[in-house]
Design brief:
By secondary structure, the protein is α+β, with helices and mostly antiparallel strands. 20% of the residues lie in helices and 27% in strands. It is globular, with a radius of gyration of 22 Å. The two termini are 36 Å apart. It comes from Nothocercus julius.
Length: 406
């Protein structure tokens, strides 16, 4: 299930999608996975099978005049402005928060490590993976109503999760999750500040996130980076994350500083993440590098510095042509997304911390959802009787959008 090793997470996920496609012969029937008698369908390995497709494909945004709405919103805080449905994706923001748990195997890995440095590495990878599901997700989740809730129990992944909209103005979402084996607690609150800047929409996710590893009596806190969607007026929509994320271990004093780099003029830094882990005496213990859209590696600081010096001297002549071809920016008024190679320059001796899961083959027709995201709004037979009436799954607007009833 991806719990045992980092390499297995991506490979197993891809195999899972292929197996699910073979089992799910009619994707239009996948919105209900229960049997005729109301019981949940169980696979041969004893794990409940979740749907692998949405009931209807994504609609086209090409016929909608975005500027007619947004020209009145420049510089304003968007949470108080009614936005057209064309901007949305069929999930509530409370369900989007739940996607933090997609790479929960990293939390389980942190719980199993005896070395505090390796625990911090796993927690850092989990913090990066929490924003990875947003890659190519240019739709806005529905704003939760005051008192709206979402709860999810995944016995196959080993956690239960609940979230609630606890404030309307300002909009604040609180969440709490725990391991079914009582090995961790994950909780926090998020207060997203949205602003429109003419060509882009910026989301600053204020609020602190806390992960507690109960076995080790440790608590880690951090705040997510800023997210920005470009070309909301004209051109192809594209997304970037930027800002500094500091993960603090309040028990040992260790700190991980991750720099989500902005795109830059020619896009050379697009999606890149670089940082380091230091102890309470500010001694660097390891360097972390990679892309939040792909994978994350760590290496020794001495090895990293030697590699960077050699790179500056032009020691690696064979990759000069490759580096020159990484960016093909058109630099026109539409501000198109820079075309970059989805590869991380590997430094010999590095250790893989995390790799993004493969998405289902029809993801582009499902708002670029991951397999985990596709299952979040699934409403199984008999579920209405046990869900709280405030649950996101019961919202008729989200349900209608998911069914293609715009």
């Amino acid at each position: 299930t991806g719990f045992d090793s980092d390499n297995s997470s991506g490979d197993f996920s891809e195999a899972n999608h292929k197996a699910a496609e073979m089992l799910d012969l009619d994707p239009h029937q996948s919105s209900r996975t229960g049997k005729h008698n109301g019981e949940t369908e169980i696979q041969e390995n004893g794990i409940k099978r979740h749907r692998t497709s949405l009931p209807a494909p994504m609609f086209s945004r090409s016929d909608f005049s975005v500027w007619s709405i947004l020209k009145k919103c420049i510089g304003l805080e968007l949470s108080k402005i009614t936005m057209p449905i064309v901007f949305n994706e069929p999930l509530s923001f409370l369900q989007r928060i739940t996607e933090y748990m997609e790479h929960i195997y990293l939390i389980n890995k942190a719980c199993s490590q005896a070395d505090p440095l390796e625990r911090m590495q796993a927690v850092a990878a989990f913090a990066v993976s929490a924003v990875a599901s947003q890659w190519e997700r240019t739709g806005k989740p529905f704003n939760p109503l005051l008192g709206e809730t979402y709860e999810l129990t995944r016995e196959d992944l080993g956690f239960r999760f609940i979230s609630e909209q606890v404030s309307h103005h300002p909009p604040i979402s609180a969440f709490y999750s725990e391991g079914l084996n009582k090995d961790f607690v994950f909780h926090g609150s998020i207060y997203p500040k949205l602003k429109f800047w003419g060509k882009s929409i910026e989301a600053e996710p204020r609020g602190t996130i806390t992960l507690e590893l109960l076995k080790h009596n440790e608590a880690y806190t951090w705040t997510n980076p800023t997210c920005c969607v470009h070309n909301v007026i004209i051109g192809k929509l594209w997304l970037e994350q930027y800002g500094t994320v500091e993960i603090v271990n309040h028990s040992t004093g260790d700190k991980c500083v991750l720099n989500f780099k902005p795109c830059g003029l020619f896009g050379k830094e697009l999606h890149k993440v670089e940082g380091y882990i230091q102890d309470k005496n500010k001694k660097k213990l390891c360097v972390i590098y990679g892309k939040w859209t792909e994978c994350l590696w760590c290496t020794d600081p001495t090895t990293y510095e030697a590699y960077k010096k050699n790179e500056k001297r032009g020691g690696e002549q064979k990759k000069t042509k490759q580096s020159e071809d990484v960016i093909k920016s058109e630099n026109d008024e539409a501000d198109d997304m820079p075309e970059v190679q989805d590869t991380v320059q590997f430094i010999p001796g590095s250790k893989l911390l995390w790799r993004i899961n493969c998405r289902p083959p029809n993801s582009s027709q499902m708002y670029n959802f991951t397999s985990f995201a596709v299952s979040l709004n699934e409403l199984e037979e008999g579920m209405e009787a046990i869900l709280a009436p405030t649950d996101c799954r019961l919202r008729p607007d989200i349900r209608n959008m998911e069914d293609g009833n715009m």
